[in-house]
Design goal:
Two copies of one chain form a homodimer.
Chain A: E1 2-9, E2 12-17, H1 34-41, E3 51-57, E4 74-80, H2 90-102, E5 110-115, E6 118-124, E7 130-133, E8 138-147, E9 150-158, E10 162-167, E11 193-199, E12 208-217, E13 221-223, H3 227-240, E14 246-252, E15 255-261, E16 266-270, E17 273-280, H4 282-286
Parallel strand pairs in A: 2-3, 10-11, 12-14
Antiparallel strand pairs in A: 1-2, 1-17, 3-4, 5-6, 6-7, 7-16, 8-9, 9-10, 11-12, 12-13, 14-15, 15-16
Chain lengths: 289, 289
């Protein structure tokens, strides 16, 4: 039997595979194939999700041998729905951390996760809110995005993955993001996630800012939420009003996240919700094993 | 704990709720609200599915009191993903029947299901294939569907729900069904499912015909499969070549079904696949109870 959990963070949804049979760090853990990931994430023929989060002890993950693991005990093997390997996912990391805490695999209020994007520190507040250190938002050059002929001024931001954050006066709720925004292909040769952002706060100097964000993710289309997009947005919005730190509430289609920016890093806080858990049907799963 | 199973028939996918705690036919069974159905079927914030199949003993279903139940022991409480109550679903009925057989709630090779669309006879072949008696395809008047200015001649067919079957020489694989086909609103005041069909068989007189079908379902858009659409298509294709009975293999995006037409009724056969089973998270579910 292969156990699974399904859950989401601001409606960015994942299939979590605990692989508890693999707790022996010396055990050979079979790789999860791209085809198996695609089958699991298929929203009609499979379970359905934006990606798969596989829980592996750091010692058992062959891949993790070349990664900095520090004191981390668990490796977050994250895959996109198309089967591709991915570094890191902020909304997924909260769900991953919630599983570790609820399963008793971690019990402290702060611990590190090993990911392909490096070590990521997770913090659980007294109220139970989960935050993930996402690393700094690195601001780049100015650029523009175009939708149906309309031009939106923005700035390139790297969260290790590329973003173009466009703070605009145009009401983002009314934008048609059914097609990809047109961007500078020389600046973004591997594509880019484009964020369209309204500042909702009246007083830009307030301790906590409030913005609304819609995001078009490269290779996917508009999504309900994007953790790195929220962090890139918070960093750029603060910079645009001359600040290098602060707290930003980001409304996304799938809910709300909170980003805390300091000169050194960015921390993403938000919900993590488990919807169901159970077993993958062995006859169905056997086809791809 | 609320148990669930997830599965599909030709990629028309469902959440099945066994409600095994309700096996006492005198028990009060709480109704499943439209809001609960929408939450379950939400593909990002819930489990995800085209609909919910709830298994109820006929005696416990208040609604079933006014339905013909005959010798049927189980009522298929079928809901669409939008929360609306629905009569019947051919692809769902196979999955429902498969559950009853695997759970030992039915054990004979033929049994009846009570549905809002009336009694439906299920047959399991020696090879394990499941067939559902869908009732007759009732042919109506000729009409047309238009896509991007192109006109497709078709015929109105009722399977209790309304269809417009368009047999065409245009390769249906190449059609753009991203928007709804334009139809005669006077003939179809409640909307219509439109099927675009290519005859793949070279010899229309063959015992078994082979067609390819794409379907645009009212209120949904293009779907991977439609059980009543396959039956309507089989009835109309046979009628168009002067036959009132025969067998038709129908290729759909999600796989293949087989329809057997006689002068009195239509029988739909095809796959039923369980992907996973488990428990709905009680904290998550409690919100809507």
């Amino acid at each position: 039997m292969t156990r699974f959990l399904k859950g989401h963070g601001t409606e960015n949804d994942f299939i979590l595979l605990p692989d508890l049979a693999d707790l022996d760090p010396t055990a050979e853990v079979p790789l999860l194939s791209a085809e198996q990931v695609r089958r699991l994430c298929d929203r009609h023929a499979g379970i359905g999700g934006d990606g798969v989060l596989r829980v592996l002890p750091v010692g058992s993950a062959t891949e993790a041998e070349n990664l900095p693991t520090g004191d981390a005990r668990w490796f977050m093997d994250y895959r996109n729905a198309d089967g591709s390997v991915s570094e890191m996912c902020g909304n997924g990391a909260r769900l991953f951390a919630k599983y570790l805490l609820e399963a008793g695999l971690e019990s402290t209020s702060t611990f590190d996760l090993a990911t392909r994007g490096g070590l990521r520190r997770v913090t659980r507040s007294r109220s139970g809110e989960l935050s993930v250190d996402m690393g700094p938002a690195r601001l780049g050059v100015e650029s523009v995005a175009r939708i149906a002929g309309a031009e939106f001024a923005g700035r390139q931001v790297s969260m290790t993955n590329p973003h173009l954050v466009c703070l605009t006066e145009v009401t983002v709720s009314a934008l048609d993001l059914s097609g990809p925004p047109i961007v500078d292909g020389d600046l973004f040769p591997d594509g880019v996630n484009v964020e369209f952002v309204n500042l909702l706060s009246d007083t830009p100097a307030a301790a906590q800012l409030h913005v609304r964000m819609r995001v078009h993710e490269r290779g996917v289309g508009e999504t309900r939420s994007c953790g790195t997009g929220a962090c890139a947005t918070a960093g750029q919005v603060l910079a645009q009003i001359g600040r290098d730190s602060g707290e930003v509430i980001v409304d996304v289609l799938g809910g709300e996240v909170r980003v805390t920016v300091t000169p050194n890093t960015t921390t993403l806080s938000g919900p993590a919700v488990f919807v169901a858990s159970g077993d993958i049907d062995p006859d169905w799963w056997a086809i791809s094993e």
